[in-house]
Amino acid sequence: METLVNAYSDMDTSQKVLHAVGGVFVAVVSVVAIRKLFHKEAKKDYPRDTVIHHQIGRGPYAPSMTPFAVKLETYLRMARIPYQNVHGMQMSSKSKLTWIEYNGQAVADSTLCIEFLNKKLGVDLNRNLSPADRGVAQALQVMAEEHMYWFLVLFRWVYDNDKSLLMKTLKLGTFLLWLIRRNIKKQTWNQGLGRHTEGEVTEMFKKDLQSLSDFIGTKKFLMGDEPCETDCAVFGMLSQVYWHFTGTGHENIIKDKYPNLAVYCERMKEMFWPDWDQCITHCGTREATK
Q1: Which helix (H) or strand (E) holds 115?
Q2: Total number of domains in the chain
Q3: pLDDT at position 211
Q4: Which of 41, 133, 155, 202 could disulfide-link to 129, CB 3.0 to 4.6 Å?
């Protein structure tokens, strides 16, 4: 689930804060930036037959701090689709990041982007899967994106742990961090997982990781020797736990407790992100083409 949190209604108009939680990345911008964000820019002349991937800037240890951007960009690489990244805070029509444009057509939501490209370009990364395997893969993706995602939100934003990654990367002040956390607490309470204790959530989170670990076993990828579409989604989520869990108190949980998931993450990185080191923070403002 990619979520855009609306500007707070209980703040003065001149001080409202917009933040986007896309794969758990929250960007805080000033009023000037908000106006610029929603200002309709002149149509850019993007190259034909090239996917324009709109996403936030790069992350410090993985290519993005939102799992959905990692998911979508991994898919584009896996499918060998020409694309160009546009880093910024330009939202889609659904007020979401990440999203794409293709030959002038805009598509929002990472899953819908993939479905659109599959139909448009005749891509089927699940072609070697049986109907039963496709069902299992879909279930794994839902577990990752609709359950594990919220664990990531809670660990990163809500619990009283070290917020060094957020403070340094997003340059959040104490007040803004408090404001964001308050709103996310409401979201996770409504979703359900926020009603549990941190200890209960931790045990649930470990069960999800254990389930993935048990299912992958010694396989190279989720469904066997060849990667499939769901690998993009699961890798996107695990990338945040494996590389971006700094300050949560569970930084090494995959490495220490689920070594086959660590191997899986490294394998996906090696196969689809040979330029990984060039796609982290220090290149966050450049456009990359593949």
Answers
A1: helix 110-121
A2: 1
A3: 97
A4: 133
| CATH for 230 | 1.20.1050.10
Question: Does residue 115 belong to any structural domain of this protein?
Answer: no
Chain-centre distance of CA 57, in angstroms?
A: 12
Predicted local distance difference test score (pLDDT) of residue 167: 67
Q: Please, are residues 232 and 75 in contact by the beta-carbon 8 Å criterion?
A: yes
Give pLDDT < 50 ranges for the chain: 1-42, 283-290
Enter the tokens of residue 203.
């045990």
Q: What is the DSSP letter of 29?
A: B
Single pTM value for the model: 0.81
Cis peptide bond upstream of 218, omega within 30: no
Q: Per the domain annotation, does 170 fall within a domain?
A: no
DSSP, residue by residue, 208-222: HHHHHHHHHTT-SBT
Q: What digits encode the pLDDT tens for the residues 113-135? A: 999 999 999 999 999 999 999 99
Whether residue 147 contacts residue 188, with contact meaning beta carbons closer than 8 Å, is answered with no
Residue span of the structural domain in which 155 resides: 131-165+191-273
pLDDT in tens, 214-269: 999 999 999 999 999 999 999 999 999 999 998 888 999 999 999 999 999 999 99
Note whether residue 249 is domain-resident.
yes
CA-CA-CA-CA dihedral for 18, 23, 24, 29, to nearest 10: -20
Q: Which of 152, 239, 137, 275 is nearest to 204 (CA)?
A: 152
